[in-house]
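Researcher: Please generate the 3D structure of the following complex. Treat every line as part of one assembly.
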Amino acid sequence: MVQDTRLIELKGVCKNFGDTQVLRDVDLYIRKCEFITLLGPSGCGKTTLLRIIGGFEMPSSGEVLFEGSDLTVIPPYKRRINTVFQKYALFNHLNVYDNIAFGLNLKTPEQLGVKTKAEKKKEIERRVKRMLRLVKMDGYEKRSTDALSGGQQQRIAIARALVNEPEVLLLDEPLGALDLKLRKEMQLELKAMQQQLGITFIYVTHDQEEALTMSDTIAVMNGGRIQQIGDPKRIYDEPKNAFVADFIGESNILSGTMLQDELVEFSGTEFQCVDEGFGTNAPVDVVIRPEDIMIVGEDVGMLTGTVQSVIFKGVHYEMMIKGESDGTLWKVHSTTMQPVGTRVGMTIVPYNIHIMRKATTADAVPVSDSGKEEA
Amino acid sequence: MVKTISAETRRAPADRATARFARWSANRANRLKTVRTIWMALLMLFLYAPILIMIALSFNASVSRSQWTGFTLDWYVKLFNDPAILGALKTTIEVAVVATIISTIIGTLGAIGIHAMNSGMAGMLINVSYLPMTTPDIVTGVSLMLMYLFCHVPLGKWTMIFAHIAFDIPYVLFSVMPKLRQMNPNLYEAALDLGCKPIKALWKVIIPEITPGIFTGALLAFTMSLDDFVISYFTSSDMYPNLSRIVYSSTKLGVKPTMYALSTLMFTTILILLVLVNKRTKLENL
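Model: Done. Output below.
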């Protein structure tokens, strides 16, 4: 399981491409055996951060440490880090076996713990076979890589990286090209592999569900900065700013005023909450998850509104409800359906109201207010 | 059944009009087709008539250029018994092989280098490399000759080989560049990631990946080398004639049918090579 030793540490890492700042002052540490996900929209700098760790980019400034010593002076081919690339980057002129054996063939017999070249060959065969079993591709040794499906190529790319027994495995949106069902299967398999092998995984994705499913730790990135870092539950339940709240899961984000400790006003109504320490009459952002709004009778709710639209989403219905007090559109998830035009009451319990400080200019992010996009 | 027939009868006038239109348009399509065929035939005749006449005359029993006196392979037999021609054949092939090998190496490495550059610099280099392909051969030939004379290099086989290398390089470059552009940009990084040093990564991953392009480039360079007359004429001397030079000098003394036979063979060889290049390019673009 995740250990306390810091394997990789980034301190004040910046990266510029010409005039564009891709990474701004990133601080991050990665612990041994951790499954950490860099999550963010495209262009947020997550892939650049991964490439810096892999050795394919140099930081413009800042420090990158591996077990306490400078990593940037070590070329990629000497790092104990392997990468699974976005489009797999398999070698098409080699068959499946030779793709996986590629890294091992470059090692000396001593590095593989054997003495002679003949023993090396046997050792490589043993390790490649074991890897093929791990990724459930045994029997495919002689196949050409073009003849494989996307999911199979993905497995070979993972095997090719893992067979070198790296300390850290970097994965750059490895499941992006797969269909939904296969993607979900691979998510679970990857997580199982990581736990079985005890290797640190650094995973890049823009898919928040993927991040929540697999990670021990999620670092949410936007505009070249880490917006929030923490375990999936904490990120979901206590987003630090409006960007994180909007990016992770669905949410209603409103402007409000913290009247005093444990009392907040938004949508023209005062609500009990559990947050304190914001001062009095402080402007804040309020996050309420759609599943945390309960629909009650129109006379007993804290808020009243009229159902504008209903979409069936499988497990629940997604309803847009227009509040009467100030016209806010609320996104509400419920297992019971209310027909369009119905007047309903809505109730929110105090611990489901999450209060955030207003974004400061430094990490100001454009966030669509709750419910602005109508379904 | 009855119903269907009655329905058809009712629609009959309209159907007749439709049928007339169909006939008319079919005829029109046929007429167009005939015109197209004739046009193509004329075009082909215009392009290939001289060569066809030459090929026919190379099998003509008499020396006459206007009378067909019977089929013979004598001229071909004579051709292969003429030491001057055999010597020129050897020179031509030698020059083509050496120039192809060297220009393929230089062109491939050049393409890899240009590919790795930032786009501004790469664009400039690509334009500079296009220039020799569009410069008239006579200008290239004369300028190379001037350079050799200026540097006091006696004209001979090696000056010709260097000239061929120079005009072959762009063909290799422009065959390899598209392959590099099609390549997954992460391949090189994947090789480094798995433990290759940069040169080894180039050799073990990049070169195999672009081999089809390199091969096409080499084939094209070889063809261009075999094909060349003007540049070779200016950069070599009569001491080291290649085939095209032999053909040219013999025309001064009145053309012998052996020259028709020689030209026929050169034409066929280059035709076959070009067909090969085309087939490869098509296969690669599938």
